[in-house]
UniProtKB/TrEMBL annotation:
Keyword DNA damage attributed: no
Organism ancestry: Eukaryota, Metazoa, Chordata, Tunicata, Appendicularia
Catalytic activity: RX + glutathione = an S-substituted glutathione + a halide anion + H(+)
TM annotation in the entry: none
Species per Swiss-Prot/TrEMBL record: Oikopleura dioica (Tunicate)
GST N-terminal domain boundaries: 1-107
UniProt name for this protein: glutathione transferase
Statement: the UniProt record of this protein carries the keyword Transferase: yes
Length: 254
């Protein structure tokens, strides 16, 4: 059976999980713990306790031991992909598009396919922006990995990116409306596509950063779409079960 390996987080691995679940494609959802439970510092322990635990198959220590076996020492990877004859399948964007094809969620006509790609990449871009700023802060802290510094960094990031989040949401909404008009039922138009699941995970990250109100204020159509996508019968149970699972590592391990 198809095996998706990622961490006990949402971030880059959650979109393929949602796509496969929505499409009814069976898969092994294998997880490494990336939250370093039990955390070795009381402040980090308190932060980890704010999130719902996502049961993992491997520990964080096992990740450190095994990471050399994976391309670029990173996840997600897909395994047991019949077309690839055992060769490694890394890179979340390639994985997302392959899963979308398996799940029949890439769009049923060329215009919808193009829109799904445009909007999935545009929504993913928020992760890149956050990661880039976080990395800058790590550098400004002279690469310090002290627990206090990690937590301070997350707080600083939230303050720093609020204006950028507003502008980004405005642009995303404008782009969507220019293609699909107001009141479109889905991100890429009339039908659900894999881009809708990227939107959900991006909004999860924004909510985790304290920007929930910005979404409704700056992207009302997208806020409405995300709400109705999360309620789709194919995934509503999965979404409910994973409510509160950490989206990013929240400064827990690195
Ligand atoms: N370009 C890759 C990046 C993969 C990546 O950086 N994954 C991170 C987690 S989101 C990772 O595996 N980090 C583990 C580590 O650094 O030990 C992709 O999109 O899949």
């Amino acid at each position: 059976m198809l095996t998706l390996k990622y961490f006990s987080l949402k971030a880059r691995g959650e979109v393929p999980r949602l796509i496969l679940t929505a499409g009814g494609v069976p898969f092994n959802n294998v997880k490494y713990d990336f939250t370093a439970r039990p955390p070795n510092h009381p402040k980090i322990a308190a932060k980890v306790a704010e999130y719902k635990e996502s049961p993992a198959d491997f520990t964080g220590r096992q990740w450190m031991e095994n990471k050399g076996d994976y391309p670029f020492q990173a996840l997600p990877v897909l395994e047991n992909v019949p077309e690839l004859d055992g060769a490694p399948f890394p890179q979340s964007r390639a994985i997302v598009r392959y899963c979308a094809r398996l799940a029949n969620l890439e769009g049923s006509d060329e215009a919808t396919k193009i829109r799904a790609d445009i909007f999935a990449e545009s929504a993913y871009q928020w992760f890149e922006k956050v990661w880039m700023k976080y990395t800058i802060l790590v550098g400004m802290d002279q690469m310090s990995m002290k627990s206090e510094k990690k937590l301070e960094r997350m707080d600083k990031l939230k303050g720093m990116m609020e204006g950028e989040c507003e502008d980004y949401l405005e642009s995303l909404e404008k782009l969507h409306v220019s293609h699909c008009g107001e009141n479109s039922p889905f991100f890429a138009g009339k039908e659900v596509t894999y881009a809708d699941f990227q939107l959900l995970v991006t909004f999860d990250l924004m909510k985790d950063m304290g920007y929930e109100e910005l979404i409704a204020e700056n992207a009302p159509n997208l806020a409405r779409i995300a709400k109705s996508v999360a309620a789709l019968p194919q995934i509503s149970e999965y979404i409910e079960e994973n409510q509160g699972v950490a989206v990013v590592a929240a400064g827990m391990l690195f």
